[in-house]
Specification:
The protein is of the alpha+beta class. Helices cover about 20% and strands about 45% of the residues. The protein has helices at about 20-30, 65-75; strands at about 5-15, 35-45, 50-60, 80-90. It has a four-stranded antiparallel sheet with strand order 2-3-1-4, with helices on one face. The longest helix has 10 residues, at about 20-30. The chain is globular, with a radius of gyration of 13 Å.
């Protein structure tokens, strides 16, 4: 059984007018219990729009996998879409 699970989620802002730093802070504020953010990167999408690539560390026994994190992120003001890119167990 893995000690933890790494999930990489791509979070798309509603527009290029949204501060990615503020969006990052809002995402950190809604993390489910036991979940932490390891790293956040900005990823260019197109026409000046950037997404946040969030590397979240989840406990191995979290109910529903990444669903609780996805749902929490989708409710954040300024978030257009959340996409899971990778889920990987950490030994």
């Amino acid at each position: 059984m893995p000690a933890q699970v790494l999930a990489v989620l791509k979070v798309f802002p509603e527009s290029d007018q949204i501060s990615l730093e503020e969006l990052r802070k809002r995402l950190e504020a809604v993390l489910p219990e036991g979940v932490s953010i390891n790293k956040v990167e900005e990823e260019p999408i197109a026409f000046g729009l950037k997404a946040l690539k969030v590397y979240a560390v989840l406990p191995p026994n979290i109910s529903g996998g990444t669903e609780s994190v996805e749902e929490a992120f989708k409710k954040v003001e300024g978030v257009s879409e959340v996409e899971v890119e990778l889920v990987h167990s950490l030994l």
